[in-house]
Amino acid sequence: MSRVPLPYGAKILELFRNPKNLGRMEDATVSAVAGSPACGDMIAIYLKIDDDTEVIREATFESYGCAANIAASSILTEMIKGKPIKEAWKVSWRDIAEELGGLPSVKYHCGILAVGALKRAIREYYRMRGFHPDWLPEELTREEKQALEEEELAKVLTRKIGMGGGKKSDRSGED
Amino acid sequence: MANSVKDLMDFYKDVEREVYLDIENSAPVASDVLEEMLPYFTTRAYGNPGVTHKLGWEAYETVMDAAETIAKYIGASTAEEINFTPGDTEANNLALLGVALASRRDKGKVVISEIEHLSIINIVPLLKRMGFEVVKIPVDGEGFIDLDALSDAVDKDTILVSINMANHEIGTIEPLKEAVEIVRDRNPDAYIHSDASDAYGRIPIDVSSLGIDLMTLSSYKILGPRGVGALYVREGVRIERIIEGQVGTQRLWPGIENTPLIVGFRKASDLMFKDFEKLRGYLGSLRDRLIKGILDSVDDTILNGPQGDKRAPDNINISFLRSEGEALTIELSLYGVYASSGSACTRRMLTPSHVMTAIGREYEAAHGSILMKVTRLHTMDDIDYVLEVLPKAVERIRSITPSGGD
Questions:
Q1: Which residues of B are catalytic?
Q2: In degrees to the nearest 10, what's the CA dihedral of B58, B63, B69, B75?
Q3: Is B300 left (phi over 0), alpha (psi -120 to 50) or beta?
Q4: What is the ipTM, given to two decimal places?
Q5: Nearest CA in chain B to A98
Q6: Could you tell me the CATH number of the domain that includes residue B147?
Q7: How far apart are the first and last CA of chain B?
Q8: Which residue segment(s) compose the domain that B188 sits in?
Q9: Nearest CA in chain B to A172
Q10: Domain residues of chain A, as ranges?
Q11: Are B34 and B385 a contacting pair, CB within 8 Å?
Q12: pLDDT tens across B317-350, in order?
């Protein structure tokens, strides 16, 4: 029987309560951020990569966002640890949703943002190393595009809040 | 989707105490209220108040008695001025759309504040489609409406002005008396509506001396049942029904009067007004202990809304910087403390609460805002428990947040 989807399952709540691989990695090979605090959603991903084998040895995250955001980031770091970069690149937000036991449509963007951050980190890694593997597409993926869209929206939002509110909250300053 | 509520309940097994402060979104019915209501579901006055036989007359008497009582509490002159609706949302819709429908030939302007409840804000597109101009009055950093902007906005074409009495999110008690004088001065024919959902039973209201024409009253926010509310409509105000059906005693809301819920609404009102000033003082003391305790024990916090007697006695709204509000409400819930947030995430959208942005809160403060309301059933022990767990919850969420900032 079809129901209005529940935003959270037990897996999400468990990862929210006990996130894995949490925290900034000081000696990361590469890191990337997706999203913006303006939208209430931001994920930072840190990767330690073995240059010879191109395998992700460690992955950690930080998150400013809802419980789904935290859970999605946490599970993504679990999914890519020990994987060759080429394999990690293939992880999709749908894989994350599946691992989390399902994500309702209102929370899809949390998974998308996590994958967006990962893909950015991978691109940055090869940019730093100065070569572009064949399998890495030139064109931005859906996740990267969506992260950009949210960030653009955040800029508009910040401008709106910054201008409108600032003026209003300082009534004494008006004429 | 395999997610089940049953699995989620396991996370709440070890909660030592539950303190429900999410009154904005829903509230329990107080047991003394429910007790009063129960016989009306099964054995008493279950007839239709509009029908002429014994059970109908009993129901009529019950509904009219409730209307008279509520009328008395707000200084209205007759029971007929109290129109029961299925809730606050419906009362606000009736006020705005009902007055607009009655003026549809002349069209004109509707003026509201920027921080109204969504049951008013979300009517704006419909009013515009109907051909009305809608102007939103800005507020200052504490949520007080800009009276100069109000004066500029109200003109001879204005048919209705709607300004909340106490804001539902930040508790700001608006300078309604001054606003009414301004509106009357600019256009004596414009009607004035006030959403008093967060004022009724907590702030003294006298519609006669205030001089307003329509006012929304809430039942659930004073621990009465959901599913009932009321719209005060001063005698003589031109307003039309917005739904149609069989009209009984409630000329503005067809359908069968829900007598048990109306009884509950009345009883909840009685319990608020029985020792009104004392209760107001009690709520205010709970509120102030909670606000002071939080501001003293957690750093990087911002109180949203004013302090002291210009704030609704039940309202607490604080922003916690560097912590996202939805995550914080879930963390608090795992301690048994229930609150809500102005964060986009709880609202299933990307923009934070319009009230938070209207008072000029930056995104971080808006997404990190926590709203709590106290009721007559809360105790100082409840407040102390919140003060014990809340700093821990904030610290945990902050530990997940990127340290480098943005």
A1: 345
A2: -140
A3: left
A4: 0.87
A5: B1
A6: 3.40.640.10
A7: 35
A8: 31-273
A9: B140
A10: 10-132+139-163
A11: no
A12: 999 999 999 999 999 999 999 999 987 666 556 6
Which fold is adopted by the domain A10-132+139-163? Sufe protein. Chain: A (3.90.1010)
What is the tens place of the pLDDT at every residue in A109-148?
888 999 999 999 999 999 999 999 999 999 999 889 888 8
A36: chain B residues, CB-CB within 8 Å: 406
- Flag if A157 and B364 touch (Cβ within 8 Å): no
Catalytic residue list contains A66: no
For residue B73, give the nearest of B220, B222, B236 by alpha carbon: B222
Report whether A41 contacts B349 (CB < 8 A). Answer: no
- Sign of the CA dihedral running B120, B122, B127, B132: positive
Residue A147 contacts B, CB cutoff 8 Å: no
**Model-wide pTM > 0.95:** no
For B402, the closest of A6, A44, A167 (CB atoms) is A44
* Residues in chain B closer than 8 A to A102 (CB atoms): 1-3
Answer whether A162 touches B (CB < 8 Å): yes
Q: Which amino acid is at B330?
A: I
Mutation site, B345, B356, B403, interface A, largest A CB count within 10 A: B345
Distance from CA of A135 to the nearest CA of B (A): 31
Find, among A48, A17, A46, A58, the residue nearest to A117 by Cα. A46
- Reduced to 3 states (helix: H, G, I; strand: E, B; else coil), residue B183 is helix
